[in-house]
Amino acid sequence: MSNTHGEQLSTGTVAHGGGAEANFPPFDGATFPSQLLWLAITFGFFYFLMAKVVLPRIGGILEDRRDRIAGDMAEASRLKQETDAAIASYEQALADARRHAGKLASDARDKAKSESEVARNKAEEELTAKLSMAEERIEKIKRESMDQVGEIAADTTGELVKALIGGRTPAKAVVSKAVDAALK
After folding, report:
1. Domain segments of the chain: what residues?
2. Contact 183, 157 (CB under 8 A)
3. Helix 172-183 with 55-165: angle, nearest 10 deg
4. How many CB atoms lie within 10 A of CB 154?
5. Local confidence pLDDT in tens for the 184 residues of the chain
6. CA of 73: how far to CAs of 77, 79, 85, in Å?
7. Is the Cβ–Cβ distance between 17 and 4 less than 8 Å?
8. Cβ 176 vs Cβ 150: under 8 Å
9. Is 57 helix (H, G, I), strand (E, B) or coil?
10. Confidence (pTM)
11. What is the DSSP-derived secondary structure letter of residue 30?
């Protein structure tokens, strides 16, 4: 476990006895010049490595990303313009369709109105023809009735005269002439 000469024990610790203790090398003044030399060499190596290898790669990556972003922005702008053009085209087509639908509706309304007018005129003509025929029939019946009224009046007058004068029937021509003169 422990020995008298400062050897390392099995536990990994150094014995406190005999021997001089050494300073921690970074804090030892005798090693400063070599430490500064190695610091300068290491700094120069890492500076060279960073300047010639790492930074150009990072710069290239950044440039690639910048170019990709610019390309994506240009593509987005182009797609936006295409979308705006498609929307404008759609709105124009929609306006044209509405205008066309309005024209079709107007044409259909005008056609229905003209067909209705034609049908109404035809119905009026038919009614006028029927009314004319009915008036002619009424006029004919009226004339026939008036002719018959004259005969009936002549017969009735003849019978009345016969009853008034007693038994004798007056001449039919004379009674008809008298009734016609009275009716006019």
Report:
1. 43-183
2. no
3. 130
4. 20
5. 445 544 444 444 454 555 556 778 778 888 889 999 999 999 999 999 999 999 999 999 999 999 999 999 999 999 999 999 999 999 999 999 999 999 999 999 999 999 999 999 999 999 999 999 999 999 888 888 777 777 777 788 778 777 778 777 777 777 777 777 777 7
6. 6, 10, 18
7. yes
8. yes
9. helix
10. 0.39
11. G
**163 backbone φψ class: left, alpha, beta (φ>0; ψ -120 to 50):** alpha
> How big is the chain, counted in residues?
184
* Cβ-contact 156, 178 below 8 angstroms: no
Among the residues of the chain, which ranges form H helices? 32-49, 55-165, 172-183
C-alpha dist (Å) from residue 52 to 20, 59, 62, 174: 47, 11, 16, 155
Angle at 71 between CA 85 and CA 83, to 5 degrees: 15
Q: Any residues with CB less than 8 A from the CB of 11 and at least 6 apart, and which?
A: 1
DSSP secondary structure letter of residue 166: T
The closest of 169, 172, 150, 151 to 160, measured between CA atoms, is 169
Residues 6+ away with beta carbon under 8 Å from 168: 162
Determine how many CB atoms are found less than 10 A away from the CB of residue 175: 21
In this structure, what token pair is assigned to residue 113? 């109105």
